[in-house]
Here is the input.
Amino acid sequence: MKNSNNPIAALILGAAFLFCLTACSKAVVSGTVEGAPDTRLVASRLVSNRYESIDTLTTDALGAFKFRVDVAAGDPEFVYLQKDGRNIASYLLFPGDRVKTNVSADGVVTVTGSDDSALMNEIDRDYAAFVKSMEASPSAKTYVDYYRSRVSYIFNHLTSLTCIPVLYQRASETLPVFAQTTDALHFKSVSDTLSALYPKSRFVKALRSDAAARMNAFRIEAQFSSATPVSFPEIELPDTKGNMRKVSDVAAKVKILYFWMAANAVCNNYNTQTLMSAYNSLSGKDVEVYAVSLDPDKTLWASYVAAQNLPWINVNDVTSVDSRFASVYNVQNLPAVYLLSEDGIKVLGTPDAGTIVKEVRKLL
Here is the structure.
């Protein structure tokens, strides 16, 4: 008699299957912290850029401990064992992992059962030594040597998720280890490789987004460095038709550079009552407006441009408050008006129409 025709057997098989699904989604970590009997430990997982407690445990008389972590398929977890608010062991856990740990009395961590978790603790050891060295006697050589060692680590472990914490290490509160704009290439290399291997990982998704932003900044800097010298920083952004427009290509002796947001009512009022009035007064002169919207919503911006019938060059920077161009021009408030000419940049702030016309005519 076949089991497939037996409802009891089918029920047992189904229960076993569900049990397997549940059991296989858990990783189990056990081990010993030497010299720490009856000690409170906390197991935490990394969530975005903070720790989230998943278990609080107490070691036995020998310092032994054990805890379990739910791990979703395709989305491994970064988990940390903490004592007195300090990490004493680190793990990269996959479904079904069985990891054994020994933390010696002097803090040396030995991990078996998971190569990735062993790598995590190797990374921690190297990083702790670097930070200690920088605190004792900071030097450019120490920093450069460590940076090169981390680049080497990434090249040798490109398929490992352990590259992610390496990319975000810091030499100090204000100095990331990967601090150069060109390091965007390392972020992209890791992101591209891990995206193919772990498309469901929330850490990889976050890395991919960050890598894209870093590559954009890298390309902009490269454009600035290779651009023909002008008396003002270059801006190149898409207009309402998606065509890239450079401020340096605007065929006018005086360019009115204007930063605004369609989502800002004050800016919209300034468009129609102040800037439009000045623009009409300067009609026929060698003048053009290059208006940079800092709206993250391109559709909203385009609809306001059309509704207000804005006749000048309109471009959009979806990076909004993080706009590199707004930073280069030191935009503090919106709306903001600048005059660009062969003499350089003249900052007007938020002038009335008469002031704009007067200052433009001086340059003409």
